[in-house]
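Field reference: sequence -> structure
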Amino acid sequence: MTGPERVEAWRPPVAGVREVFHARFVDHAYPPHTHDAWGILLVEAGVVRYRLDRHDHGSFRSVVTVLPPHVVHDGRAATGAGFRKRVLYLEPGVLGEARAGRAVDAPTLADPVLGGRLRSLHACLRGDGPVTDPLEAEARLAFVVEHLAAHLDRRVPGPATTRDAGGAVARRARRQLAADLRGLLDGPDGGSVTLAAAGAALGASPTHLVRVFTAAYGMPPHAYLVARRVDDARGRLLDGQAPADVAAAAGFHDQAHLTRHFRRHVGTTPARYAASGSGERGRGR
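Structure field:
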């Protein structure tokens, strides 16, 4: 592990996530302190030694560390090489403060599935640049929280069922996504309906909604939504609209966001696609 000490922190547009914190430290040692949020820690390199409620613990790459709200802890590198970490700070209500005592008793979770889900969530929150896909991040967070809650409740996380009688929930969810190519229906406050709100309207938890949708259509809701946006963008480009205008009209954050997904789905950039021709030949079909 080489390079200087560094810190990167931001607040993503995802309900329940207060802060994302990525850092590499060599000499820095945290004094005793508390947070009023849940800290979900991944150590990507090195080893961290810490005291939580006057008990000694260690954190390293193969485990997930759960630091509950309002409980005193510190932290330092276990060796002179330092450590690199990623931390997700979750609002207290996401996991419920009643679970804090269970996290104090057992803050270390040796669960590679949970670790993989957390790393995927961090990658989504960072994006390829400054863009976070809120729907994808919300879905990934829901699965992480479900998994964490199972551990803290002393349940063994296991495979969940994907029962959906006649595919009714999946079909209704697809109709909701298709109703607006930006993917989220206008809510009563003029904002956008979240995955949680869509699930509540359909009588399903966010994780169950994602599971039944994926089982029915072979991709999760956020991937379906991106594919629909790209398809919409293709038609707009062939109609002669400028890529920057297409990005906004098809529901992408900006032209760079459109280009990233368009290249992955179509194999070329929007500008090259638009210049390649028109009609059926321009669609590459």
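Note: Confidence is low (pLDDT under 50) at residues 183-191, 279-285.
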